[in-house]
């Protein structure tokens, strides 16, 4: 916008071969990503207007794209019924396979498969820890599996207690050292577990509809948000920050 209050075109991003259906700013507003049918995901520098990098797999176009919440990676939903996660500076790429029962880890430079996690049941969503060492996998069978993905992958926790029969319910890591795991639930509650395998150590009530998604605050480890079909987002905080899962802890 100039001194007269008029909008002026700052840059024209060129080099796209197909219609663009998504353009998204990065969390620090310094870059944008674009994607569309029969088009790869592309990252652009806003200050200069220069093309930075493209993200593609299997020669298929993208359906949708997004940023990691901290701007450190790219998420792409592709036409081949796969979802990929790229780290901007790392080598790992994660994808959900066509049958939605496996997650493959690729070397970004060579494209070779490094590891594969296979589940017996359909995968509905997954969440990666901040240190890229752990993965939460939500299954259609109303279970959540926690995997260690540093080295040879292995499952170390199976979480149960939440309800899922019709909707996609998403879970996440959080808390100090990300030793806690949280999930929404169709019974209108938020479930929290602590690494160790015991039953859910905390159930948060307050919503009047299915809780579809939970998100742990990236800077305040004692706070998380939940989104529900009741058209509200609730922010939960811990009164006693030393007793996250004690019997008398108050959220």
From TrEMBL:
- Keywords on record: Repeat, WD repeat
Cite the PROSITE patterns for this sequence.
Answer: WD_REPEATS_2 (PS50082), WD_REPEATS_REGION (PS50294)
Where do the WD repeat units fall? Answer: 13-54, 204-246
Q: Which InterPro entries match?
A: WD40/YVTN_repeat-like_dom_sf (IPR015943), WD40_repeat_dom_sf (IPR036322), WD40_rpt (IPR001680), WD_repeat-ST_regulator (IPR051350)
Question: What is this protein's name?
Answer: WD repeat-containing protein 26
């Amino acid at each position: 916008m100039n001194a007269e209050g008029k909008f002026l075109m700052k840059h024209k991003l060129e080099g796209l071969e197909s219609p663009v259906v998504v353009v998204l700013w990065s969390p620090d507003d310094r870059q944008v990503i674009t994607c569309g049918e029969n088009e790869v995901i592309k990252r652009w520098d806003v200050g200069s207007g220069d093309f930075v990098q493209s993200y593609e797999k299997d020669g298929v176009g993208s359906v949708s794209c997004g940023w990691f919440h901290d701007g450190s990676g790219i998420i792409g939903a592709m036409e081949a019924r796969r979802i990929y996660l790229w780290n901007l500076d790392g080598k790992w790429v994660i994808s959900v396979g066509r049958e939605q029962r496996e997650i493959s880890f690729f070397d970004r430079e060579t494209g070779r498969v490094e590891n594969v996690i296979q589940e017996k049941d359909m995968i509905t969503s997954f969440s990666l820890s901040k240190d890229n060492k752990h993965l939460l996998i939500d299954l259609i069978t109303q279970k959540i599996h926690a995997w260690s993905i540093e080295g040879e992958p292995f499952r170390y926790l199976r979480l149960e207690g939440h309800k899922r029969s019709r909707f996609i319910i998403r879970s996440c890591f959080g808390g100090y050292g990300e030793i806690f795991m949280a999930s929404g639930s169709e019974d209108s509650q938020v479930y929290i577990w602590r690494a160790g395998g015991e039953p859910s150590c905390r159930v948060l009530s307050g919503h009047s509809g299915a809780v579809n998604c939970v998100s742990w605050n990236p800077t305040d480890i004692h706070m998380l948000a939940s989104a529900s079909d009741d058209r509200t987002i609730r922010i939960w905080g811990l009164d006693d920050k030393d007793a996250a899962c004690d019997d008398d802890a108050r959220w």
